[in-house]
Amino acid sequence: MNEVANRRVFYDFTLSPPKSVSIAALIGDDQRIIDAHDEAVHSAFRQLEFYATTRIRKQQQTAYRLTGNVVGAVFRHDTSRALDPHLHTHCILFNATKDSVENCWKALEPYEMLVTKKFAENVYYHELARSLHHFGYRVQNQRRGDFEIEGVSSKLIERFSKRHREIDQKTKELLEREPEKARQNIQEIRSNIAHKERARKIKDIGLLKLQSLWNEQLSADERLQIRGLAQSPAPAVRSSSAEQAVTWAEEHLFDRRSVVHEHEIWRHALEHARGQDIRLPDIQAVTRQRGYVRDERFNGRITTREVITREWNIVCLAQDGINKHKPFASGKTSANPALDREQRQGRGIHFGVTRFCHPVPGRPRARAKVSPSGKFKRCSNATVTPLRFSLRNASK
């Protein structure tokens, strides 16, 4: 985002394909990929626009209203600052949105757009992967959530990722100088370094000159490898329906959480069906017919009756188990001097539990356990999490 004094002028949302796609498009000189990138960017930002919001202040209270419109422009670039092939598009959104209720222009509140950024990113990836498949490229999904084109070696990707390596090195140096920052968000640290420690862009270098520069870094075999990435006819991909993709997304999300944003279902369904001939409207049509439990107080958030039943059974189990068991270690105290007052108090509470089921405050799906040293740690495990929808709504 860009700020002048205390005024925010615009927000910058950027979308870029995986490095192998940039290599195939720019070094392989496949204009079809660049056109497909532009179309996928348009589809993604159209979805992001639906979540544009503005702030409402009345009687010293603040509320938010969806406006669903933005003003902006897109700018496509084809290199990184290290002059590596890096296809990417900046979508510059001005800090303005039209409030149709009050019939006036107001400041854009981007929170909901930031929350849905991963969904928009998956719309982009899905549309781009579908196009690549039609062009004859094979795509391979990655654990990190994106994909790569099959046939582009990791060695080649690494060679044309100089800016990424530079940021990695600067991050490493910063953490060596200030080790206490290792407990902070490393991705945020990398983003700050990328923004603040960057060389000036080299202007007026045409694509032909860049392609000559890139080809000098390739062997003859690598040039042939890039030219032969696209196959004809298009390779076959596994096939599933929109309903199967939604079912997979529901099982993935509701296994760990009670309430989710509906766009999270869409996001994970698209990720599951990436590259297949399934469109976002097909997935949204399935979720509209699902009969999710909704609450107008929590716009866009959903749960299912099965989840509510599961939560209710846990509540009943906890209530029925009150004072039914002997404590683990009643009256025991810890001699560990490393524990502070709250840790000692918590240790005593949990060892003195007489319930069958004892909820532990903390993040969802995390519970406390005691290590041999007597300190509390967090582990990934099921716990009682509060349901954010009232059970009364479920009976409607």
Question: How do the strands and helices of this protein lay out in sequence?
Answer:
Layout (H helix, E strand, L loop, with lengths): L1 E3 L2 E9 L3 H9 L3 H19 L3 E6 L2 E6 L5 E8 L5 E10 L2 E3 L4 E3 L4 H5 L1 H19 L3 E3 L5 E3 L4 H6 L2 H16 L8 H11 L10 H9 L4 H8 L14 H13 L5 E2 H11 L7 H9 L4 E2 L6 E3 L1 H16 L20 H11 L14 E5 L5 E5 L10 H4 L2
Helix pairs in contact: 1-2, 2-4, 4-11, 6-7, 10-11, 10-12, 11-12
Summarize the structure.
The chain is of the alpha+beta class and 396 residues long. Helix content is 42%, strand content 18%. It folds into three domains: 2-227, no CATH class; 242-303; 321-380, no CATH class.
Strand order, biggest sheet? 1-2-6-5
**N- to C-terminal separation?**
44 Å
What's the helical proportion of residues? 40-55%
Task: List low-confidence stretches.
Answer: 363-396
Average pLDDT, rounded to a whole number, is 81
Domain count: the total is 3
Q: Total number of β-strand segments?
A: 15
Q: Structural class of the helices, strands and pairings?
A: alpha+beta
Provide the β-strand percentage band: 15-25%
Q: What's the overall geometry?
A: globular
Radius of gyration, taken over Cα atoms and rounded to an integer in Å: 26 Å
Main pleated-sheet profile: 4 strands, antiparallel
Order of H and E elements: EEHHEEEEEEHHEEHHHHHHEHHEEHHEEH
Number of helices: 15
